[in-house]
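Good morning N.,

You mentioned wanting to compare the apo and holo forms, so I went ahead and generated the holo version with magnesium ion. This is what I fed in:
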Amino acid sequence: MAKVSLVDEIDDGKVVWEKSLNILKLDLGQAVYKSWFSKVNFDKYESNIVTLIVPTRFVRDWISTHFEKKILRAWKAIDPAIRKVNFIIRSDAVAVTTEHTSSVDIKVKNVVEDNFLADEFNQPTDSKEVNLFASKFDPRFTFDNFVVGPPNQLAYAAARSVAESTKAKPGSNPLFLYGGVGLGKTHLMHAVAWYIRNNHPTRKVVYISAEKFMYQFIKSLRSKNIMDFKEGLRSVDVLMVDDVQFICGKESTQEEFFHTLNTLIDNNKQIIISCDRSPSDLENMEERIKSRLGWGLVADIHNTTYELRLGILESKLAMIDTHVPRDVIEFLASKITSNIRELEGALNKVIAHSNLIGRKVTLEVTQEILRDLIRSNEKAITIEHIQKKIAEKYNIKISDMSSSRRSRAIARPRQIAMYLAKNLTQKSLADIGKKFGGKDHTTVMHAIKKIEQLITEDKDFAEDIKLLTRVIEC
Ligand code: ADP
Ligand code: MG
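and this is what came out, ligand included:
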């Protein structure tokens, strides 16, 4: 059956567009939103196609490449029947936003106009390295917008001191930032870039994702422009390579990366690397590269604490000048624990929802909207949690989980914990072994086989395991 549009009148299309703009504002952040969507006007909504008016061809191309999906998604949240977005170019299109601008907006906006957009619009054509490696920096990712707490203070301080220095910092070169997904690594790197651009504009900064590094490298090999690639990267003052785990196992890219690293460090140029794990945990990375990566300062970002999550929510709300009741903020901070990206997403979802239905955000509404997300956050079971529960149940010490004592009263619960760790988490055998006092993966494998065998042989034991699983999942 064809989807019935909720929007009958063309006039209603305008209302939906205005509501979609609210969602886009949350999704993109105030600065990006203003740069692009203040130039867009609603024209009509007919046959489930919305037509928008943009002032120039450039704006149309940019918006349709970068934001079309987001526009569709925002509109769909209100009217699922939409099929397509069309653009028409009309140069007399005027700004639609006449909103009050807070001081935060002004600060971010200046940066956007001076740097972000300038980069995109006026890409110089006479400088190869800028063309090859130019990347846009997210205007939200500044030091000012980074909330500091015990889990990230080392990484923050290190990034800040590298940014403030006008030369490479010998003790922090390379600066190696590592931590799980969504904990702020890219944010810190962009913050360094913003800081240097604003305070030491003559220093040349290049930020590149490891994937783009690889792509550019291979592309330049194919098109025989390898010298441009090399020179482009080696003529910078600060080189940042994000998510370096992606070049694991890629031999020739690793080789090139290593040479770039060496050349720059030897020439006293600053390197910043980010990664989802520590240098020594990079499997399929050559030893000499790992050791080179660990030479400078290695700073890890730990999982967030409740206080940090609370601080981040407060700071985001201040940025968008929105009020959300205290109990809702506390609820979000206590329930969305996986990472900051997800925490932000949850906050945005709650605000967007309340904007749409025109009701205040309350705890009940929040619980309802985020039900699935919260369930998945709660499902994230850790090995430590399993060890704790099993140790409690069998009345042994948690440290026995890591010991090599072989008496049955200790070895059996340990095997059960390993078995459950395999079944209830995504961890590899090697990772599990590490958490049990550095045992190797064959020991873990053996434990799992043993428990599987007992489950098939002994009904009561099988029941116990089921019960334990339930206790751990609660
Ligand atoms: P990573 O690169 O480590 O995967 P990101 O840097 O992309 O993570 O961060 C994910 C999101 O969380 C971003 O929107 C970022 O602005 C936000 N974020 C992370 N850490 C902080 C922080 N300490 N304060 C404010 N926002 C943060
Ligand atoms: Mg990142």
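The longest strand covers residues 41-46.

Happy to go through it together on a call whenever suits you.

Best,
F.
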